[in-house]
Structures are given as structure tokens and as C-alpha cells.
Design goal:
The structure is a homodimer. By secondary structure, chain A is an all-alpha fold. Chain A folds into two domains: about 55 residues, Multidrug-efflux Transporter Regulator, Chain: A, Domain 2 (Orthogonal Bundle); about 70 residues. The first copy, chain A, is built from six helices and two strands, in the order ααββαααα. In chain A, β1 and β2 form a beta hairpin. The first copy, chain A, starts with a helix and ends in a 9-residue tail after the last helix. Chains A and B meet through α3 and α5 of A and α3 and α5 of B. Chain A binds a DNA duplex through α2.
Chain lengths: ~150, ~150
DNA sequence: GAATAACCTAAAGTTCGCTTTAAGTCAAAT
DNA sequence: ATTTGACTTAAAGCGAACTTTAGGTTATTC
């Protein structure tokens, strides 16, 4: 049993445009076409699309996924490289989380700043010494050295 | 005392191109120019640049920062809106962190998958029932319903 | 005073992941 | 039989945040 591109788009929550774009980019290696040119998606194609979505959700770029497809085609001999891909990706992901946590601290500071400003007026915010300390801790850019 | 664009670029870890780009986009409201056209950055400009970097690091887009500049110009009457900006941004940041943590789980699964594949061969990975459960938990796309 | 380095503007190019447009074919429903 | 709707390709467009290129002026240094 096969599915038209429209059905698949509906199932996957993508547009037909996106699916054709993926196909054009070589991200749908096994989708066959009728003589009329109409794409015929099989269950295996749907499964691959789910894997594609999964790979996307791990933060891989489309070109990385293309590379991954090539590794898959090589079979067993690419196992190590595939494993490495995900380990690298994990490191990137960890770094991003760390950066976002730092961002959260800055946002919390800003939110407290504006609470204070709304209560006591913006000109009085830094009479609150805790906020001053917080500001100095969070926003002093270590790379910047203002000369003299 | 003023700084040339090159010095500022060096201090801030940006390129001169980026600084001119920011200026063109209206993100450096107070930078003055000599009659020759050369930009003269003051300490106040450096401080604003640090704030700019801070705002960027909170995940704000340049157009949001431009909007923020306009709010600053309005002074006191924009306090509430400015406060709202950061609260919204905090929510976005929280959501991003949540998504990345989910991503981490998927990556950990993939890494375990490849550990197992390297140990026992790719064809035997899902003889490990824990990995099967993990896969089903993480990768079953709820939106997909394969008919029949 | 001439070479070189740093500055200037304006505009086009880049990357990513699509989305949109244009122009057309094909199959089903009325 | 014709209209509607889903499919096709190919190519251009989009938004974000720069980067690069081109062509030119100014400032510093030998």
C-alpha cells in the first residue's frame, strides 16, 4: 500500500512543499514514482521520515542528515563514525543548555530590575545593592577592558 | 576620550563590519562622527554595546532590540512594556531549555544504540529489550498514524 | 612624500530551511 | 465535458544576522 504526498504531509505534520524539498535534497532516498511522476510513499518511507524528524529534533542540520544517509548506505563500516556524530551532537546540545541557563539568569535579573523600577522608579533601582552586585556579576563582559 | 571602530571591535570581540552593520540598523543610537565621517565611540557607546550584547544573549532578535531602544527613548512610560518583554523572553528561554533536554534524551538513546551496535552488531541491537522500550518511548511520533 | 593601514559607503552575497510562485499535467467528481 | 483539486518541476523569494566585495577617502608611519 502506498500514500500520496498529500496524505504523508498530513500524517507527518509537514507540507507537501517541504516533502518535495526534502526529496530534491536527497533526504528521501527510497521514494519511488509512478510513470506519471507521482510519488508513492511506502510504510518504509514513512518510517524513514519519522527517523528524519527524530534526527532533526536532535539538532542535526539537513546536510548532516544527508551525510548520515550516506553513512547508512555504507553499512557496518560506518558504525563508528555514526556513533561519533551523536556524541558530538550531545556535546553541542549540552553547551546550548548551559548557555541558555546563563541566559535565564540574565533574564531573571532584568525581570527583577523592572520589578524594582516599577516599585521605586527607574532612577532608584540601583539603590538596591543586591541588584548592583547581581548586575556586576552577570554583565561585566570579561573580554572588554575600557582603557583609562 | 574616544575609540575608533577598530579598537571597539577588538574590545568587544566583534568585527568592524558588524559594528557598521549595527550602526546602519539603528542599533547604535548615540555614536557620533568626525567631519571626516569616522565614527567616534565614547565610553557610553561601549557601555551600550555591552548592553546590546547582553540583550542578544538573552535571545532577543535585533529587531526586538531596536524596539527596546525605542522604548528606552520613551522613558518612564514604557517601563511596563519593557518588563513584559523580558518576561516573555524568559518563557521562550524556558521552553527552549525543555526542548533541548528532550533532545538530550534522544541523543543518549542514539549513543546507547551505537554502543550496543558496536558490541553486538547492528542487527542485534533490539534484542536488548530496554533499548526497544526506550526507542518506543522517545521516537513514537504521536502525530503519525500509519493507516492499516 | 609615498606607502600602507584603517577608515568610509553602498550593495550584493551567504547560509539555513523552508515557502511561494509560475506554469503545467492528470485524475476524479459533477 | 468541464471543473475542481491534487499532483508535477523549476526557480525565485524570505528572514536573520551577518560577511564580502568594490571602490574610494583619510590617517599614520617610514
Amino acid at each position: 500500500m502506498t500514500y500520496t504526498i498529500g496524505k504523508v504531509a498530513e500524517m507527518m505534520g509537514l507540507t507537501t512543499h517541504t516533502l518535495r524539498f526534502y526529496d530534491k535534497e536527497g533526504l528521501l532516498p527510497n521514494v519511488s514514482k509512478a510513470k506519471s511522476g507521482v510519488r508513492q510513499f511506502t510504510d518504509a518511507d514513512i518510517n524513514w521520515l519519522m527517523m528524519l524528524e527524530c534526527l532533526k529534533s536532535t539538532g542535526l542540520q539537513l546536510k548532516d542528515i544527508k551525510h548520515y544517509i550516506n553513512l547508512l548506505k555504507k553499512g557496518n563500516s560506518s558504525l563508528v563514525e555514526r556513533a561519533e556524530m551523536f556524541k558530538e551532537q550531545k556535546i553541542k546540545c549540552q553547551q546550548e543548555i548551559k548557555a541558555l541557563k546563563q541566559t535565564m539568569k540574565k533574564l531573571d535579573f532584568k525581570i527583577r530590575y523592572y520589578e524594582e523600577a516599577l516599585k521605586h522608579g527607574e532612577e532608584n533601582v540601583f539603590k538596591n545593592k543586591e541588584l548592583v552586585r547581581e548586575r556586576d556579576k552577570l554583565f561585566k563582559l570579561n573580554k572588554v577592558r575600557i582603557s583609562k
